[in-house]
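Internal ticket #5521
Category: modeling
Description: The requester needs a full-assembly model to guide mutagenesis choices. All entity lines are attached below as received. Residue total reported by intake: 1256.
Assigned to: D.W.
Attached entities:
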Amino acid sequence: MAAKPIHRRREMISADEIKPQRWRMWILPTLLFVQSAFVGSAFGTFSFTMMIYSSAAILVAATVHFMGGYDALTRELVLPSNRNSHQQNDRSSKTTAPRQLSKSEAMHQRRTRLRVIRKFVAPILILLMTALGVLPRIDSHMAGSMNFVALFVDSLAHGTLFVSIVLWVLFPYQGHPAMLACGLIAVLMAISGGGVSHTINGQLVAALTTLVGYVIGADHILGRWQLYKAIRRRHKLFTRRLKSREQRFVGGLNAKAKDPLPNSSVSLKAADTRGPLLFYVLAFSLLLMSTTAAGHFANQMVPGLRVDLLDRLSDSLEKVAGGTMIGSSRYVRGSRLGQIRKHMMGDPKEVALRAYADDEPGYLRGTIFDTYRGGAWTPVSERLMRNTRVDADQILARFVDPEAPAETPLRTGKDLKERNRFSVRKVSEDDVIGTIEIHNVPLKGQFVFTSLATEWIEASVYGVRLTHHDSVTQGVDTQTPYVLGVGANTPQETLIPIRRDIMLDVPKSIRPLMTRMANNICDGHLTARAKAKAIEQYFQANFEYSLNRHASPRDMDPVAHFLTTSHPAHCEYFASAAALLLRAAGVPTRYVTGYVLSELSDDSAYYLARNRDAHAWVEAYDDITERWFPVEATVGRRYRTFHDNVTADDTANTSSDNYLNEDDDRSPLAALLGWILSFRTSDSLTFVFQAAQLPLFSLVVLMLWLRHRRRISAFGDPLEYESRQMLTRVDRKIRKYALVRAPGETLHQFATRVEEAATQSPETPLLRQAADWYRQFASDRYQGRRPEPLGI
Amino acid sequence: MSVDATGESSDRTGTSVGYSGPRTTLSERIGQDLNDADFRYQLRQSVRNTVYWLAAPFRGYMALRGSMTYASVFALLGVFMTLNVIWGFPWSGMMGAFFAILFVGFGINRIMRPVLRLNVTLPRVAIAGEPFSLSVRLTNSRVLPAINLRVGFQREGLSFISRSALLQHWDASPPVSVQILRSGEQMQWHGSMRFDTRGVHDLPPFHLASTFPFHLFYARNKIECETKIAITPVPANPNDDPTSRMMLAEIGDWTQQLVAGAPVEYIGNREYQVGVPVRRWDFASWARLGRPIVREYQSPSIQAITLIVDTSQRAAAKPQAARENAVMTDEQRRFERLMSIATTAINEISNRRVQLTLHVTNQPDQDAYQNIQTANETSDSMLIRLAAAKPTPPAAAQAEIVETLEACRRRPVLILSLIELDDPERQELAEQLPSSAKYLLIEDQPSTSSNPTKKSHSADRRLD
C-alpha cells in the first residue's frame, strides 16, 4: 500500500469526549457475567449467582431506560453544573413543548435522586448485598460439616462478587475501581475453592483469563474514571478557588475572571490515522507471555520454597494455629508434639479423607519426618544438610515422569482429567494386590496420602517430585481423585549412609537417657523387628493412653519427660519415644503422621477418615530384609493396612477392557465428535494462550516494523531513505571517536573537523576516509546521485 | 527583567534523554596526559556515576510509587495475597499474572513514556484575570510512539486538590486525552490560560502523562516551558468605586485640556484633491464655485505627554508575597491600585492619539527620557513595563522623578504616586515641580481606606 501523500494528510482535532461509546457498554456486563459464572461453578451456586446477576442486569437496564440512557446518566454524573443550563433550556422551551418539558424534568429529577442514592445509600446497599451474598453461604456451611476455611473462602468470593454487582448497578457505564479489587479477590477465592484444577495448565488458564479480564476492566474503568474524576475535581477546585482568587483583584473578580476556562483541544497532523491497537495487542501479548513464564517459574520454585519455609516456619505457625478451629480445618502435619491432639479435638467429626477400596485402607501416610529436636520433628532436605555433608545431594528430591496412562478407572465421579501412572518406589516390584482410590478435601491443603506399601500412583500429574522417603511433595493434582496401587510387601531399598545417619540421629541432650532405656528394653533382642516388638510391648505394658494435655517442664525435653514420668499421653508421644528408642538401639526410624481410614460410610460405599483419625506412628528399617516395617507403639492401637484382594484387580481389568471394546465399536464420526467434546474449554484456552502467544507476538512486531519502514520511506524517495541510512551508519561509526555532527553543521564543515581530529589520532586512515566520504556524499547528494557506502 | 521580544519561546526538549555526545573531544583525549583538571573532572564524574547507580533502587522505588494506579496497587496486593502459595493455595498461576502486571506492565510503561519536544506560542502580554489563548506544539522525537496521553498544564492525579493547587495564581484549560502520537509526528494543544496576579511570570511546566498499557501505570513527564509572559494590571474601571471614578475623570479632563487646549486655527479654503485630508467640506464655496472645496485648519500640535509612575512605597513588600500568601496586604493592594490606574491612564492617553512616554521609577532607563526609544514605544511594551514594576524606596524614586522632569522641561507630565506631595519625602520634588506637571495622588479605595474623610479631599495638587 502506498503511503498517503503529505498534502492529503488529515488534520484531526480531538477533545475530551465524555459521551459513552456503544461497544464499551458491554464490557462490564460481560466481565461480570464471566465472573458470576466462574464463582457459581466453583462453589456449586451457579443458579444463585446467575439469578443475582440477571436481577442486577434487569435493574441496570431499567435504570438506564428510566434515566434517559447512558448518555444522560454519564453527563449528570460528570457535570453537575450542567443542571443550570439544562433548566434554562427547559425554561426557554416551556411555551412550545410543555409535554416534553415535563418528561425531561421528571427524568432530571430521577437522575438527581439516583445521585443522592449513590451518595448516601450506596454503603448501606453494598452492606445489604454483601450480607445477601454471604449469609446463605454461611447457612449452607453450618448445615453441613463445618469447615471454616471453606466457609471463609466461599463467603468472601460471593461477597466480593455481589459488591461488584452493586457497584455496577450504581455506576452502570463507567464502573468503579473497587470492582477490580473485588473481581480479583473473587477469582482467587474461586480458584482456591476448586474452580480450576491444580495442574500448571489449569492454573495458567485461570491466570491468563483473569489477566485478560483484568486489563480490559482496568483500561475501561480507570480510563473513564480518570476522565470523569478529573472533570468533577476540576469543578470542585474551581469553586473553591474563587474565594482565594477574589481578593487578588483590587476591583474584585470581573465576569471574565469568574468564568471557567474553555476546554482544551488537540489538533494532530497525522499520516496514519489508525489508533494504537497494534501496540495494545503487543503489550497484551507481552503480558500474556510473561504471565505464562512467571507462572511456570512460580510452579517450579514454590514447592522447593514451600518445603524449606514450612520446615522453618510451620513449627511456630502450627504452634499458634494448631489448636484453633482454622488449624483443624486443614490437614495436619504434626511436626510439633501436641498438634495432632489439637487437630483431633478441634473438630473431631469433620471428614478429612474418603477412600474407595475393597478392603480397609488402614494407615495412610501424610508427612514423614527425620530429625527430632526439643519436641518437634522436621524433614531433612538437601539444603539443610549441604553445609555438613558432602554427600548431601544424595537425598535430593527426585522428579519422576509418568510411565503410562492410568489403567484403573475411577469408581465414582466423572473421569474427566487425563490421568497417568508413575512409580513411587525406587526399586519397583510388580506385586500389586489392590488399589485405593483417594478423594482429598481440596480446601484442606495439598497432601498426597499413601500407604507404606504403595507401588504406584495414578493421578492427574504435572512434574512429580518425590522426597528421599518416596513421599510425594509436588505434582499430583489433589483436586481430583488419585489411585494408589498397593503392593504385597513394604518397599525394599538399600539405605545409603547419609540416610542412615539422619535416621539414627538422637539429640545429644537426651541420648544418654535413650541409650540407657533402649538397652534395658531391647536387652537380648538382636534384630530390628525384635527390638521394635520389645519396645511396643514395653509401652503397652507400662503406659496409658490419654488425650489430655500434659505439660512438661520448660527445661526438659517432652519425650524424655514422658519416658521418665510415664504420664498418660497420646500417639505423638508414643511414636516419638519409640522412634528415638529404636534409633538409640541402632535401628533407623522415621516418624510418620497421617490418617487411619477404618470407618465405613453409611452406605458402605467408601471408607472415610475424620479429623479424630489423625495419627502418628513409626516406620523402622530392617537391615536384614532391607525393607521398611511399621511400628505401632501407641497403647491400644494396632497397625492395620490394606490386605490382599485379587478380585478388585480383576474387576478393574475387566472394566477397562470393556471400555476399550466400546471405544472400538464407535464410528469415525462419533470418535471425532467424542474428541471434539473431550477437547475441553481449558484445553482450547491453553492452546490459544500458550501456542498462539509467540506467533501473535512475532506477527505484531513484524507489522509494526513494516509500518515503521514504510513510514520512513514515505517521507521521500527510496534514494533519500537509503542515503539517510548510510549517513546514519557512518555517523555512528565516527561518534566512537567523540565526533558528533552538530545540528547546524554542514557536511563539509564536519568533514574538515574530522580531518583535524585525524591529524591527532592513531586511527588516521579511518577518519581521513570518513572525511573524504562525507565530502563525496555531500557532492553526490547535491547532484542527485546515489552515494557510495563507506568501504571499511 | 526582559521579556522575549516575540513572546515566543524556542524549542525545548523535555528531559535529558538520548545521546548528547561525549564531553571530551578527540583532541583533548589524544596525546595529552591527564592533568589535574581532567583528573578532578573524571573523579567528579565517577562519584556522580556511583551515586547515580547507588541511588537507582531508591529512584526506582519512588518512580514505582509515584506511578501506580488503582490497577497496579491491586496487583501488588494480589502478589502479597498469592504469596500464600507456600501454604498450599493453588495460586501460582495468579502469582505469575500479578508479577507480569507489576514488572512487565511497569517496564512497558517506562519504555513507552512520552518524551516530547515542546514549542509554545502565546501572546506577549495579557491582562490579569483575563483568559488568553495559547497553543503548544509537541513533537515526538523518539522512535516509539506516545500512547494514551493526557496533555495539559494541570497535573492530574490523586493529590489533585491541595493547598498549593488552591493558591496557585494561574489557571489553564483542563488537560486533554490523546490516543497516540507517532514517532516524528506533531500535535498542537490549544487552550486558554489565565494569570491572576500582575507581573512577568514564568509559564508553568507542561505536563504529559501516559497510562499505557491498560491504565496499569502512570508515566508522568514535566516539560519546562522556559517562557515568560507579562501580565499587565487590570485597568481601573470608573464603575469600581467613587475614588477611582474621580481620579480617572481627572486624568481624562487633564488630557482633554492638553489636547483641546490649543486653539484650532482656520487657515483658508482650497480645492479638493485626491489625498487631501478632508476635515470639513465648505459647502457654500463648493456651491458657489462648482468645485469641491475644503476648509483647512491648523491641527493642534501633537502634544507629547510623559507619564511618570512613582512606584515608591514606604513599606515595600516582598514582590512574591502576593503569590505565596493567600491574602494580599493593604500595601500590595494599594500598589496594585496604582498599577491599575496607570494602565487606564496609558490606555486613555494612547486613545487620544497623544504621544506618550512612560517612566516607571523602579526602571531607570536612559532612553526613556531622552526621547529616543519612546517615540515608537507601543502601549503593549509600556504595559509590560508596568507588569514588571516593583515598589521602590521613596527617596530613590524622588531623585528619578526630578531627573525625568528636568529632561522634559516644557512637556506636560503626569505623575501618579502613592505619596502625598506635602510629604517630607517629596519636598524636593514639590519645590521643583513645573507648572506643566500634574501630580496625582492615588487614594485608597473607600472600603479599605483608613481615613474616610480623605475621600472628599481633592487629589489634585497643581502648583505654580
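Resolution: model delivered.
Comment from assignee: Residues 460 and 783 of chain A are 74 Å apart (CA to CA).
Ticket closed.
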